[in-house]
Inverse folding.
């Protein structure tokens, strides 16, 4: 059931070529979720590589990088779940979903809340969930997200605003949403 090698590139071929981009993506993802010393950048890249090896192949660079961002998100979410296995319960803090450079690093509890809310959003609108994955977890800007998803920059901006508002409401941040959304 494998795809002919001339149509799709494999992770084995792409990782060495895009290794620096993967490290940048991993550093960004670790910073956003305050992974700290629990998982180093290189380890996150290698874990993502192991997951990407299972894939049939990748159509282009954007497809590969988007897949890598999703794999890294899953790895970090699983790590957060493991860290909280013994301490389920209260104390969850609110997560503000603003443009990436302005994002505070969420706690493990908040990361799980965002991941759960993102799954619910995906059931409502797969495209909005993909935009959040690219912007929040992948660290992409509007242009990079548009290229990765095959959308226009304007559509990405509108979807990002809709997704942020929906997630803020889902995460209980309606007050913060009205204060943080520019007029």
């Amino acid at each position: 059931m494998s795809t002919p090698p001339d149509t799709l590139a494999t992770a084995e071929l792409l990782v060495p070529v895009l290794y620096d981009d993967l490290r940048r993506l991993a550093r960004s993802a670790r910073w956003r979720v305050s992974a700290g010393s629990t998982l180093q950048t290189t380890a996150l890249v290698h874990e993502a590589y192991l997951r990407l090896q299972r894939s049939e192949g990748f159509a282009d660079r954007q497809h590969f990088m988007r897949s890598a961002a999703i794999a890294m998100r899953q790895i970090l979410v699983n790590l957060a779940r493991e860290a909280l296995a013994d301490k389920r319960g209260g104390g969850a803090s609110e997560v503000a979903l603003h443009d990436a450079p302005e994002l505070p690093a969420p706690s493990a509890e908040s990361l799980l809340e965002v991941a759960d809310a993102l799954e619910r959003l995906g059931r409502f609108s797969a495209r909005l969930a993909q935009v959040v994955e690219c912007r929040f977890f992948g660290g992409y800007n509007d242009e990079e997200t548009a290229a990765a998803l095959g959308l226009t920059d304007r559509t990405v901006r509108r979807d990002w605003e809709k997704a942020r508002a929906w997630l803020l409401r889902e995460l209980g941040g309606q007050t913060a949403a009205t204060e943080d959304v520019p007029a």
